[in-house]
């Protein structure tokens, strides 16, 4: 890998500096471990602030270089956001081959908690990503307990995630 960043978070919330971004970055840091470099891509900045042409190429390169890709989205109209779809649709077939992906979805209600995940996982798999562990799915009201939720998720899934990602993620 040419980039020293093992874990990258990409977030498709149309609100800049969103709670979804904060959550995805926190999960990326937990996956990478202490002292390991992580990167994040806030698609609201990339597309909505008019940075798209050169910024997209940099974002795509970051995504393709990641050993683990954390993909965050709020549940929006029972799916993942159009902003995230726009980014993923521009990736060429197989762009995520060799990448382990972890979807992160945040929903307003318990009934909608898994909706984006049900549609996002097949898209990531179609792009070649491996999805060996369950997604991190949270309700907005659970964000006040983010540290505890992340500890529970990583305690249950980090060993399998690291095994799937291979040597690119610290033990």
From TrEMBL:
It comes from the Bacteria. This is FMN reductase. Residues 7-131 form the NADPH-dependent FMN reductase-like domain. SUPFAM superfamilies: Flavoproteins. Pfam families: FMN_red. Gene3D superfamilies: 3.40.50.360. GO terms for molecular function: oxidoreductase activity. Keywords: Flavoprotein, FMN, Oxidoreductase. It comes from Glycomyces sambucus. InterPro entries: Flavoprotein-like_sf, FMN_Rdtase-like_dom, NAD(P)H-dep_FMN_reductase.
């Amino acid at each position: 890998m040419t980039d020293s960043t093992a874990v990258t978070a990409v977030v498709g919330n149309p609100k800049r500096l969103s709670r979804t971004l904060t959550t995805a970055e926190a999960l990326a840091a937990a996956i990478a471990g202490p002292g390991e470099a992580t990167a994040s891509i806030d698609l609201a900045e990339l597309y909505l602030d008019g940075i798209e042409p050169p910024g997209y190429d940099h974002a795509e390169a970051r995504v393709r270089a990641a050993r683990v890709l954390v993909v965050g989205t709020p549940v929006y109209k029972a799916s993942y956001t159009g902003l995230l779809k726009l980014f993923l649709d521009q990736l060429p077939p197989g762009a995520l081959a060799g990448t382990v992906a972890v979807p992160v979805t945040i929903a307003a209600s318990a009934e909608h908690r898994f909706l984006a995940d049900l549609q996002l996982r097949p898209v990531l798999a179609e792009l070649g990503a491996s999805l060996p562990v369950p997604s991190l799915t949270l309700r907005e009201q659970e964000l006040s307990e983010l540290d505890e939720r992340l500890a529970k998720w990583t305690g249950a899934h980090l060993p399998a995630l690291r095994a799937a990602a291979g040597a690119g993620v610290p033990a």
